[in-house]
């Protein structure tokens, strides 16, 4: 059973078809990038997998259930979320919400509560957010908030991670660090990852697959097939060049949304 | 004005004064009512400040005034008017704020509800001249004439309301800080938002009975805002908010008892002082 399977899916937002005839598969434990220009429907795809965006046509199976049926086993990081500076809630509390925030009832102190706190602390260490997790989240930088939100998505040990531009608002070393972290979790814990990205370079060497959204539909393929000068140029409609760096890595240059940070 | 002219009732002897404060049933009722109101306002206010819904809270307090004046006109108990109008106001605000959480749109809609509530309130007042003598206490509060029954009703409404907030506390916190992810985690964010507005309406209706409709803010916002400044831990924050609301209410009632000024004035002034101190200290 695949982590994500869409067949002939169509999404309509506000009466307009965003994409149709989308058939994509994400295997368990696979690291897949979702690429495409602004407005192509990448976030819509993520929301469709969560069942927040109903499909207008087609079938979908997410971790063996219809969309929305397995959300307890999915970690979700929405796009460009920053907390209002006046939000005076600690980072550690925000991570904790990801663990049991949806539960009704009064949490009583005891063994279970200590175990939950230990899990939260462990996850915060995993993303390297330990030294600022006790500060109010609204006061943290965008990158610090992002790491805590990744911890929030990870804290339930999900089987599928849906990350909508998690590298946004991170500087270059942090992009590389967070990408490596996500890849490690993907490998070690056998978590499937769907990661929406504009800059493919920090993750290019980790990818098992690529989903391209453009022109109202999606193309799926292996990274070496899709990340080529011809394919990307056709997709974005502007000249894009894929270079082979001396260490064998691919570097994408020229796409307006695929900023070639590494290319200097 | 010299101090002795303001605090006409004061002996300037702490033990005598404290004993006198609780000697009369009317003052016992006022303190009991104030305690119930302060706990409710402290808890609900903390969430209201977190959700940035102070404007909605203010609108509901004007709705409380409308309800009270309508009740006077209709000849039903003023307290029924408070609860009914605040409940209706909460539903109106939820409907007006629409499906998407957009702050600017929400405040435009909230402002419209507020203007309508105020206009209706004054219409009812002018239709029923008899109420005019009570206008001051409707707007600025009174602690005289709080009856045993009124305390009982306050308690019967506050207890289940607070129990509800306690049971829904985690999802409410989640939906308040992080509505998108909370929705994906299966929380009915919209429904919870409506539920919270109703709880807020009930709290306003309770608070207005002590502070008057215009000064509800002193208990609902000020202690909560100070608590948010003092600590970023949710449980501790709610506790500090309640403690401050209690301190403000008790001090305000005591000052009003011994002085010539109304209780709403004192509660507001003490609350303001608490907020200034919290701001300066954090
Ligand atoms: N609430 C909405 N009402 C109407 N149209 C919407 C709404 N949300 C998104 N859309 C439209 O749906 C299309 C896809 O949006 P989506 O957010 O999925 O794009 P995206 O690929 O994630 O873009 P970006 O790279 O900017 O994040 C866009 O054309 C957008 O204008
Ligand atoms: Mg997007």
What can you tell me about this protein's structure?
The complex is a heterodimer of chains A (264) and B (282). Helices cover 29% and strands 25% of the residues of chain A. Chain A is of the alpha/beta class. In chain A, the strands form 3 sheets. Chain A has a 6-stranded mixed β-sheet with strand order 5-6-7-3-8-9. In chain A, strands 2-1-4 form a 3-stranded antiparallel β-sheet, with helices on one face. In chain A, a hairpin with a 2-residue loop joins strand 8 (209-214) and strand 9 (217-221). In chain A, helix 2 crosses helix 3 and helix 3 (111-126) crosses helix 4. Chain A is globular and about 60 Å long. Chain B has 282 residues and is mainly α. Chain B has a single domain (3-281), classed as Orthogonal Bundle (ABC transporter involved in vitamin B12 uptake, BtuC). Chain B is 80% helix and 0% strand. Chain B has helices spanning 3-6, 14-21, 25-50, 54-74, 78-96, 103-127, 135-140, 148-167, 169-177, 179-184, 189-211, 216-220, 222-230, 234-258, 263-281. The mean pLDDT of chain B is 87. Chains A and B meet through strand 5 and helix 2 of A and helix 9 and helix 10 of B.
